[in-house]
Design a protein that fits this description.
Elements: H1 21-44, E1 49-54, E2 61-65, H2 73-89, E3 95-99, H3 101-104, E4 121-126, E5 129-132, E6 147-155, E7 158-165
Antiparallel strand pairs: 1-2, 2-7, 3-4, 4-5, 6-7
Helix pairs in contact: 1-2
């Protein structure tokens, strides 16, 4: 994403771009935290199937296909949060792999149908938990700090787990 401040430019003209380092670091933490949430959910509620993630400062969440019993939401929220922060304390360093879709099932809990069949794709691995991904990550899970599970919302056969980091 960029912002054009003034004037115009033509083909082959040199332009100067700047990266907002703090925002980049925050996005990496939020993205990695989303995968940690998914890892924690797999430990707590393995029947949920991950379908979508939103890992940006404006209300990050991971969404799953599945359902949640209203009476257990607070305990579930607490259990997921505890599992997330226990994982962060392990100080795991993510590994990045490029593997074919057929190999992903050996390390990924869920392999999306839309993964390309004819070329390797990126997978991030935290210990023994792999996730196909396309974002940036922290160099160590302890860099995230602390994860708070903000809420768990169930609607129309899906469950959304909202989270924040500190």
């Amino acid at each position: 994403m960029g912002r054009f401040e003034h004037g115009s430019f033509s083909s082959n003209e040199v332009v100067e771009c700047f990266v907002d380092k703090e925002r980049c670091i925050l996005n990496s933490k939020l993205h990695s935290a989303g995968h940690v949430v998914d890892y924690a959910v797999s430990k707590i509620k393995s029947a949920w199937i991950p379908i979508k993630g939103y890992h940006f400062p404006e209300g990050p969440y991971v969404e799953y296909e599945g359902s949640s019993d209203e009476t257990d939401k607070e305990k579930l929220r607490s259990d997921i949060e505890i599992a997330c922060n226990q994982t962060l304390k392990e100080n795991i360093k993510p590994k990045l792999l490029f593997i074919n879709k057929g190999e992903m099932a050996s390390i990924c809990r869920h392999v999306p149908e839309n993964m390309p069949e004819n070329k390797p794709s990126r997978v991030v691995v935290f210990g023994d938990f792999g996730v196909p991904y396309g974002g940036t990550h922290v160099s160590s899970l302890s860099d995230i700090g602390h994860i708070t599970i903000r809420n768990i919302k169930a609607k129309a056969g899906n469950v959304r787990v909202g989270y924040d980091i500190k």
